[in-house]
From TrEMBL:
GO terms for molecular function: kinase activity. The keyword Acyltransferase does not apply. Residues 1-21 are annotated as: Disordered. Gene3D superfamilies: 3.30.420.40, Winged helix-like DNA-binding domain superfamily/Winged helix DNA-binding domain. Signal peptide: none annotated. This is NBD/HSP70 family sugar kinase. It comes from Kribbella pratensis. It comes from the Bacteria. Keywords: Kinase, Transferase. Belongs to the ROK (NagC/XylR) family.
Length: 404
């Protein structure tokens, strides 16, 4: 097998922890509380190793003993439970889109302690100005939360467009052409003075989607819609990123031969036919009043969704047409990956998901592959913030956060 030194070229389930310390922290964080015996069973590590690593984590202030659970054997000793010390460390997640900059501050247990949504930089944004702004606003977010800045380990940054994780975007939607080739990660690290992890928006959203206990799933996919359309796959708690960070680009599968040209270079792409920009263009052509929204981003799409939800039949027909196309993408994901659950997330689904959901669900159940296993479609309750939260959680699972 060929060895490559550039970690951006490593395919797989990054950032699945590889060290025993990382594995143990990750398991306790996922479960909430665990005993040493359960950690031995879940990680496959030997009991003395678990004991030694847990001791160091307690000494470092990252894990605490908390009460006792029932014994696992009749007459046995009650188990001492371990949990993450939430206030031990923090990470920041930032989601950049044309219309919004979303910030979250996440504690070491994975809980969101602060969130901000600010107006985005708009189209044709200057990456240097955006990086400078993100650095200032990140500092303000941390200061306003009262968290000691020294406890903030790093930042996960999410943006649209094909990317190479260690470098930046390799091409970009029309609104972000100046970002192509810009070294986002290194420039942010210079400005912030902390490690930065760069991630694709849909992949991060798959990591940030919250599943309720009623969703006992090991294989789920997130269908993400912001300015563009993408998807992320989550397997046993880890997201699949692909070789460079671009897995799941469902918005750029061709669903219409000879269809409209797409910014990606293809024609007939799902995104070009049914994404928010296409919906906005159709609404404008139909003469719908979109208020002050000049651009074709999520804000204008949201205005159409609100019209549709308030009973405007022309707006509803345009959104339902978009949903019929996007249902093809949803069905493709379900058929390709045999998922138990498809979660609709991202700012566009956060405003219009109730129209899309039944159409996507019906399409998936129309096929024997979805019908026989009952693949379920649900709306993410935190769709606006899922990408920012996911970026923070992925930073939390990285070696930067584990060695801290
Ligand atoms: Zn395309």
């Amino acid at each position: 097998m060929q060895q490559v030194s550039d970690s951006s070229q490593s395919p797989g389930y990054d950032p699945a922890p590889t060290s025993s310390r990382g594995l143990i922290v990750d398991r306790i964080r996922s479960a909430g509380t665990l005993s040493r015996v359960e950690l031995t069973q879940l990680t496959g590590l030997k009991a003395p190793s678990v004991t030694a690593v847990v001791r160091r984590l307690i000494d470092d202030g990252l894990v605490a003993e908390t009460g006792r659970g029932a014994s696992t054997s009749i007459g046995g000793k009650p188990r001492t439970l371990l949990q993450i010390r939430a206030a031990a460390r923090y990470v920041v997640g930032v989601h950049l889109s044309e219309d919004h900059l979303t910030y979250v501050l996440v504690d070491y247990a994975g809980g969101v302690v602060a969130r901000w949504r600010r107006d985005g930089p708009g189209d044709d944004s200057d990456p240097e100005q955006v990086v400078a702004r993100v650095a200032i606003e990140t500092g303000e977010l941390i200061a306003s939360s009262g968290v000691d800045p020294a406890l903030v380990l790093g930042l996960g940054f999410v943006c649209p467009g094909p990317l190479i994780r260690n470098r930046g975007v390799t091409s970009a939607p029309p609104s972000m052409t100046r970002w192509v080739g810009f070294p986002i990660r290194s420039r942010l690290e210079e400005r912030l003075g902390m490690p930065v992890l760069l991630e694709n928006d849909a992949t991060a959203a798959a990591a940030g989607t919250r599943l309720t206990t009623s969703h006992d799933v090991s294989v789920m996919a997130a269908l993400f819609m912001s300015e563009g359309i993408g998807s992320g796959l989550r397997l046993n708690g880890n997201v699949y990123q692909g070789a460079h960070g671009n897995a799941g680009e469902v918005g750029h599968i061709c669903v219409q031969i000879g269809g409209p040209r797409c910014w990606c270079g293809g024609t007939g792409c799902l995104e070009a036919l049914a994404g928010p920009a296409a919906v906005v263009a159709k609404a404008r052509a139909a003469g719908l009043d979109l208020g002050s929204h000049r651009h074709s981003g999520v804000a204008a799409f949201a205005a159409i969704a609100r019209l549709a939800l308030s009973g405007d039949s022309r707006a509803e027909a345009i959104i339902r047409d978009s949903a019929a196309w996007i249902a093809l993408g949803a069905q493709t994901i379900a058929n390709m990956y045999d998922v138990q659950l498809l979660v609709l997330t991202g700012p566009a689904f956060a405003v219009a998901g109730t129209i899309y959901l039944p159409i996507l669900q019906e399409r998936i159940l129309s096929s024997v592959f979805g019908r026989s296993v009952g693949t379920k479609v649900v709306l993410d309750e935190r769709g606006h913030d899922a990408a920012a939260i996911g970026a923070a959680l992925m930073m939390l699972k990285s070696e930067h956060a584990i060695s801290a």
